[in-house]
Amino acid sequence: MIRLPGAGAALVAALALAIAPPAAAASPAPAAAKLAPGAWPQSESDLRADPAIRFGALPNGMRYAIRRQQVPAGQAALRLWIGAGSMMETDSQQGLAHFLEHMAFNGSKEIKEGEMVKILERLGLAFGADTNASTGFSQTVYKLDLPRTDDETLDTALKVLRETAFDLTIAPDAVDRERGVVLSEERLRDTPGYRAVVERLKFLLKGQRLPQRLPIGQVEVLKTAPASRIADFYHHWYRPERAVLVAVGDFDVDAMEAKIRAGFGGWTDAAPALPDPPQGPVAPRGAQARLFVDPGVNQSLQIAWVGPPDLAPDTRAKRRQDMIETLGLSVLNRRYSAIARASDPPFLSAGAFKGDQDDAAEVATISVNAEPGHWRQAMQAAEREQRRLVQYGVRQDELDREIEEVRAGLKAEAAGAATRRPAELAGEILQSLPDDTVVTSPDDDLAEFEAAVKGLTAETVNAALKHVFQGQGPLVFMTSPKPIEGGEATVLAALNTSLQVAVTPPVQPSQVAWPYASFGAPGKVAERREIKDLGTTFVRFANGVRLTVKPTAFQDDEVLVRVNIGDGMLGLPADRQSPYWATNALIEGGLRKIGVEDMERVLASKVYGARFSLTDDSFALTGATRTGDLPTQLQVLAAYLTEPAWRDAAFLRLKAAVKTFRDQYDSTDGGVLARDLAGIIHDGDRRWTFPAAADIADASLSDVQAGVTPQLRDGPVEVVIVGDITVDQAIAETAATFGALPPRPAPGPVETAEATVSYPQANAQPLVLTHKGRADQAIGYIGWRTTDYWEDPQKARDVAVLREIMELRLIEDLREGQGVTYSPQVTSQHSLVWKGWGYIAATVEAPPDKLADFFADAQKIAADLREHEVTADELTRAKRPRIDGLEKARLTNSYWLDQLSDAQADPRRLDVIREIIPGTQKVTAADVMRAARAWLKPDAAFKLTVEPTAVVAADQAAARSAS
What we know:
Elements: H1 7-13, E1 53-57, E2 63-68, E3 76-82, H2 96-103, H3 116-122, E4 131-135, E5 140-146, H4 151-166, H5 172-189, H6 192-204, H7 219-224, H8 227-237, E6 243-249, H9 253-264, E7 288-293, E8 299-307, H10 316-341, E9 349-357, E10 361-370, H11 375-392, H12 396-415, H13 422-432, H14 442-453, H15 458-465, E11 472-480, H16 487-499, E12 525-531, E13 536-541, E14 546-551, E15 559-565, H17 584-588, H18 596-602, E16 611-614, E17 619-625, H19 630-642, H20 648-665, H21 669-681, H22 693-698, H23 701-714, E18 717-723, H24 727-735, E19 767-771, E20 778-785, H25 793-817, E21 825-830, E22 838-846, H26 851-867, H27 872-889, H28 893-900, H29 908-921, H30 925-935, E23 941-948, H31 949-962
Parallel strand pairs: 2-6, 7-11, 14-18, 19-23
Antiparallel strand pairs: 1-2, 3-5, 3-6, 4-5, 8-10, 8-11, 9-10, 12-13, 13-14, 15-17, 15-18, 16-17, 20-22, 20-23, 21-22
Helix pairs in contact: 2-5, 2-8, 4-9, 10-12, 10-15, 11-16, 12-14, 25-26, 25-27, 25-29, 25-30, 26-30, 27-29
């Protein structure tokens, strides 16, 4: 199905909207034309459904979509879609559609409570990664990703989905045990950003049902609703005519269809059907503003117009009209990007988007992120640019650029269509279900696009743009960490003032050419070695640049590139704040001979990427491209290596954004942990700490350059290329770019003192961090120091299995047994770079008064693992999902790009690749117990908590009073 660039970014930014005269009073939204039971939307459309998918229906009305996908071999994705979510709840059921989703894992007619996840783990499915579910306003989805497609695995997976569809028990005692888990998820989701989204929905969809039916529901309902009320929702809304089974993978389609018919053909309705609750009409409104103040939000605003939803069927004409509007908005977003990248920009970022909100309304939006205190300038600049677009339109050269960029993306999708993963293909089918859109093939998408844009003129796009920013409004929703003097009246007055200012025509940019097509005479190959068992080639050029190439067939027309330079954190001082937080200034600063905006314009027809990051042992430039664009990709990365412009405007923009993000971290327990944990577990080493507010304020571009430039200029260079490419192609294109550069040194040995960092010492009392969020939100962390990977690679693999078992135990104890938390996690690391550094740690979100119990439970689990061997079943449930996950990862280009980095300088890394799966397979129960005895000692644990500021202050006051 067609994916147009730009829409995703706008959705992330907000329900974004824009500006036009107030509309007349709204009429009730037309009712969506419902498909007949068992029908698919292509039966009422002129679009051709993807011929690779078998669409069908059972006599009871349940639909299915089956596709054979043999890449990767032996894998499959199964999805059960139910066309019911929180919108269908009564007042007394708010939150029970989501609660019911949880109960799908807690007992059914043939699978007793607590056994479903274990059954799947024995087959190699990891809980969370391969076994998951989600609930939305109008849908609930159950997901299983299968590591193999033998009959046992397929039959078991279909049985699990069948039991979920119509045979759940929903036992009262099981419901009571699950309440704490659901309430933990409610706490986890309740962030300032979430609260802002809720308030925005209430404001934009005033009087409509959707904002009153949030999937998480009402806390009081979650605490008190009896099992019978959940069952009532289940029996009325989980019905065959509301269900779709999606199956994509390496299996015979006829056999899968027979299995679906046999398993689901007997499903009958358990209760009378209920009508879909009405959304309610879009309310007639003029200009209004809503100000949402919360210390944890950034300063942002959306200007929106709301109209009735577009419920027309999915047709060729509708897609063309949507595409024309999207192309016009892409031009506007491009202009916003240029403004944000300019010197002294009025906003940090801005975007425009138009879309349907769950069949409740169609919303057009301008969304703007501003520096604190600069919201007026941000609003005015974004609003005026939108009016400039509507009044003067887009230029033909701007339109042609957006067409070229979309074309490049669609061509890449078509070229890689045969090797899409089952989960991706299943996801496309799922995406089509809520809106009854037709699932079309990438080849047809490209052909339809070419037909639609043939002869497309700016005049046609400009005519469409006249109607985009219309509806009830303008409705201005603003978030701010601090109150605004005058409140909402001030916000609305600022908009009205801006609307009085006339706009001028846009300035046409000058034409430029790509100036980095040549780097001189291609370099000569000095050495070439084959690593036959890993299908990898090592090359060294005469100038010292090293190239590692691994051709693959994992994804047609995909090539990933990583350039490792210097020695990264190893070469930085431990007592000075590292520049990792500001490394993106290199990319956003553009190149000496061309800025980022001009580069994107000149290379619009190319697929390439550019990211810059700091790793333990290198600075890394990375990009993803298609086979034919590898020359451009390497030119871009080589230009950033040799001639970054380091423009002040990019750094100042980044600096302002980071300061804003830093302030927001304090508002939640998860934010504080995400910000501070890396520095803490490296014992305060400044290379990992998040910069303090003073660090950000005092930082200069020259400081960042001082930390980065010497390594870029003088450090060793390694290029890693993985994907749909031949070795000779990779050598030739690298020779023309990196191989043509001045000489680079070979990587040298690292001094032991430079490669040393510490994990924090054990503590009797937890280190206490504080956050400014809800009083019932807290996090506990307990970790034990281990060691680096190279000290004993097999023992490192033993610890990895120990980690999996600890997580199984915590899930069974804290989530399934006590219902204390939503998602306890256990992590571990064994460094390949830092001598002696490694750890295994458990983290849990829970109310503050439960943290002491968590630490006690974790120590109890550790003691049991030290004293007793795990059972054969538990070992299987830990090892098999891990091994299957590793095998799946090895069938991706990203895995090899990461694993082959630095392998020429340190050939031991090749053995890491070779040994990870057989080494995991050989781990025994005795090995796990030895690992627990070696590391999980009761007096060796480091503990920390993230607790509400008010709770910590109260505890401290109580302690002072008692003393």
